[in-house]
Design goal:
The chain contains 22 helices and ten strands. It is an alpha/beta fold. It folds into three domains: 332 residues, ABC transporter transmembrane region fold (Up-down Bundle); 164 residues, Rossmann fold (3-Layer(aba) Sandwich), CATH 3.40.50.300; 61 residues, no CATH class. Bound molecules: adenosine-5'-diphosphate.
Length: 603
């Protein structure tokens, strides 16, 4: 990475830090200023005091120096502590804000990016970097350190101007001292660079194994997996697999630690040489009579602070430089573009629900996949119709729904809403016309009411009505806490465990509560028992009301009640018509599927 890019990234990082919490940013600037001044007060006034003593000044003058030293240090410390105490809370604000920005990014990302393995890995690496302290923590640390060290260099430099003007100390000594200080800074920067390269490689080498371990630890601790683990006695096997997989991680970790300790040795050596040289020069100056007693202490202290600041600055800059690599990854993640064109047309709110959606020669390939998941799909949804979609696994049914809801854009062809390409509509508004229950729907460990409403606040009467329509009425009546009942026990000891079928009914109720013009049920009956299944599909027309309903199911008997049935095969619609029409074609796909299942439904 070019130096200029590193500076630009660090600057962007500092600006982000200031934006996350301006009060914290300014507090650090002022606090460090006060903190840095503290040691210079005694350095300056002790020299004055010693020289005044040597010159035989009055007690009043001596007392004034003492009071000034103690008073100023006291005031500076007071100010420093005041700023520091308020920073505790500010730091939390910074992390909260940064977390929020990171989460927002994941939420606003195109769905295709969320499924992208490379982006998933990158997300994991940034999360790991953040946890290790890279990005924001190191950035705030560096900003603070660099600011302090620059102030120290300025203050010490100002005091030491008179030292470099001393005639009794030979020029080669002064230059030699500067050279040694420079060499030490170089060594510190070298160490910083090496350590960061080591850590970066470590983070690269272990990102995948971390992702893997996370998943396995999740299996080991997740009570949902507990049944399989016990029944199939996979516990030991899983635990051993985690241990085997982690062994190389820890080996690598120890190696990295040992190597970074080795980098400290040349630094220790350089420190000793500098101190030895400095004392030698000052002693020589004092013996020659040009350096006063007060000045000796002043120069020694200032010089030690200057050496510390210069080499510290070397270290801070190298940390900032190393952190730039992490910032690059961090900002690259935040900058991942959303390739979906998001138009601004508003979706008209229509009471008559006249939303005409048309697929026009739509074909689709998943990113990175060479095979088409959908091919030349042409279809117009009739407003208010009940449409069933059937076909074998992998025939493209779910993909068809994902495209309809704009989780992906077609690779070829277009989808129109009331004659206009759906890409031209405001994304959120377009989404608002669909209620979907996906096969892999998620309920959250919140209250039943919040789950159905998908939000904090809800209309209790409408939630109850949706639950009743979805067939959850009887179970709801048995819940003592009603809509306040918490689902699952993750956050609430009194939470209820619900069966797969019950969960599906709640998910259907959530779709009904949204009351969107389109309702899509992807395999809604897969987890339902036959009675509940019968309830859902026999009442499907009532449940869906005047909405356009799309019903994906493997159970063809459930689809009989729909106005139209689409049969998918290998991404294409190979048949369409009513149950009767399709069954009339003995060579058709539907006929074959129906006969394969008919044995279950003849009685
Ligand atoms: P169905 O719902 O009919 O079972 P899908 O629409 O889920 O079928 O899948 C259609 C095809 O697309 C399958 O070949 C499947 O492997 C592929 N597919 C589904 N999801 C993805 C994905 N996220 N990335 C790549 N290929 C996918």
């Amino acid at each position: 990475m070019m130096f200029r890019e590193k500076v630009a990234l660090t600057k962007r990082g500092v600006l982000a830090f200031r934006r996350y919490c301006p009060r914290y940013f300014w507090s650090v600037i002022l606090r460090v200023l006060l903190e840095t001044l503290i040691p210079y007060v005694p350095i300056y006034f002790s020299a004055k005091l010693l020289d005044a003593l040597a010159a035989g000044e009055t007690v009043r003058v001596l007392a004034l120096y003492v009071l000034l030293t103690v008073g100023l240090v006291f005031l500076l410390k007071l100010g420093e502590n005041w700023f520091r105490s308020s920073e505790e809370g500010y730091m939390n604000d910074v992390y909260m804000e940064e977390n929020w920005v990171f989460t927002q990014k994941s939420l606003s990302m195109a769905y295709s990016s969320l499924e992208d393995q490379e982006i998933k890995l990158n997300h994991e690496r940034v999360r790991m970097d953040n946890q290790t302290g890279y990005n924001l923590y190191y950035l705030t640390l560096c900003t603070e350190r660099i600011w302090r060290e620059m102030l120290q260099i300025l203050l010490s430099g100002a005091i030491l101007l008179s030292f470099f003007a001393l005639g009794s100390i030979p020029l080669w000594c002064k230059l030699g001292l500067l050279l040694l200080v420079g060499a030490k800074s170089f060594l510190v920067a070298w160490k910083g660079k090496k350590t960061f390269a080591l850590n970066d490689q470590f983070s690269k080498d272990t990102a995948e194994s971390n992702l893997w371990s996370d998943k396995f630890y999740h299996y080991l601790s997740d009570y949902n997996a507990g049944k399989e683990i016990r029944l199939y006695a996979t516990g030991d096997w899983l635990a051993r697999k985690v241990a085997d997989r982690e062994a190389p991680y820890w080996k690598l970790y120890c190696k990295v630690q040992a190597q970074s300790v080795l980098y400290d040795l040349p630094l220790l050596l350089a420190d000793g040489v500098i101190k030895l040289f400095l004392y030698g020069i000052l002693l020589y100056g004092a013996l020659s009579g040009e350096v006063s007693v007060g000045s000796i202490t002043k120069y020694v202290s200032s010089m030690l602070l200057l050496v510390g600041a210069i080499s510290g600055l070397g270290f801070s800059l190298s940390v900032a430089e190393g952190n730039a690599f992490f910032l690059k990854r961090y900002f690259e993640y935040l900058d991942i573009p959303n390739p979906m064109y998001k138009g601004s047309l508003t979706v008209e709110k229509r009471d008559d629900r006249e939303y005409n959606v048309e697929f026009r020669n739509v074909s689709f390939r998943y990113p990175g996949s060479r095979d088409y998941a959908l091919r030349h799909v042409n279809l117009t949804f009739r407003v208010g119709e009940k449409l069933a979609v059937v076909g074998l696994n992998g025939s493209g049914k779910t993909t068809f729904i994902k495209l309809l809801c704009r989780l992906y854009d077609p690779t070829e062809g277009e989808i129109l809403l009331n004659g206009v390409n759906i890409q031209k509509y405001d994304y959120d508004e377009y989404m608002s016309i669909f209620s979907v229950v996906f096969q892999d729907f998620r309920l959250f460990a919140f209250s039943l009411g919040q789950n159905v409403a998908a939000g904090m606040a809800y209309d209790a009467a409408r939630v109850e009505e949706s639950l009743r329509q979805a067939g959850f009425g009887d179970r709801f009546a048995s819940l003592p806490k009603g809509l306040d009942t918490c689902l699952y026990r993750e956050f609430d000891e009194d939470g209820v465990e619900i069966s797969g079928g019950e969960a599906q009914k709640i998910a259907i109720a959530r779709a009904l509560y949204k009351n969107a013009p389109f309702i899509v049920l992807d395999e809604p009956t897969a987890a339902l028992d036959p009675v509940s299944e019968y309830e859902v599909y026999s009442k499907f027309n009532e449940i869906a009301g005047d909405k356009t309903a799309i019903y994906i199911s493997h159970r063809l008997a459930s689809c009989r009640f729909c106005d139209r049935i689409l049969v998918f095969r290998a991404g294409e619609i190979v048949e369409r018509g009513t149950h009767r029409e399709l069954l009339a074609n003995p060579r058709g796909e539907y006929h074959a599927l129906w006969n394969a299942q008919a044995q279950y439904y003849t009685e």
